[in-house]
Amino acid sequence: MNKAYVFLKRGWVTFASYRVEFTLQYVGLFVTVATFYLLSQMLKGVNVPSLAKYGGNYTDFIIVGVVFQWFVTASLNSFSSSIRTEQMTGTIEFLLMSNTRLSTILLYSALWNFTRLLANTIIIFIMSVLIFKVHLSLNLFPAFLVLLLTVTSLSGIGMMSAGMIIAFKHGDPINWAFATLSALLSGVFFPVEVLPSFLKSIAMVLPTTYALSGLRQTLILNQTLDAILPLIAALTLFSFIAIPIGLLLFRWGFNKARATGSLVEY
Prior knowledge:
Elements: H1 2-17, H2 19-40, H3 58-89, H4 92-97, H5 102-132, H6 140-168, H7 173-185, H8 197-203, H9 207-219, H10 229-260
């Protein structure tokens, strides 16, 4: 736990040194949320049958979806950006020479990113309620649990991407492909129910489909934890499958880079 604290403290100190970048990230997300809020106002009062199971309000539907997609994209990039930062700052050699396991270094390096991400997401939802009058419930524990399981289910994919970056130094096809599929098929901008059957089949194998459904059920429909247990179970299963595979692929990328002597290159 002491090592986890050290990584968290380092992340906080670094974060506090780049407050302008932090502010610009918030401004960018706020502008995105505001854009979709204004677009949703065009559908105000329009009866959309496919939105009925989500409360019928497209503003609430789209704001939760947009913030969630930002959360997904940032989660996917947490591991790869952490490894890239260690390479660029020249600290990865010192970490690898320590008596800390490779998997522990990987997880702790991304720990601050995930902690900040969860906090930022909660802040953005609060801003949406206060500024855009989005109707969200205070059913916070189930919603937080969904976000936490979203992080774990996406961690495996993020580790795969980090392994690719260490091995090949450029490109991020895994994160790009998953983020694109998530935005298109997981119900971010429109309900999954309107997708053609073959695309709906693909959507049902994405953890983000279950995560976003659970988030909307808790924040918009005020569902209890018992009501979303099947979604919780699905996200837990995704986590148990994805994390070991992600660790294996990350170790493969690490071993490949070490064998070619390019581990500290970026």
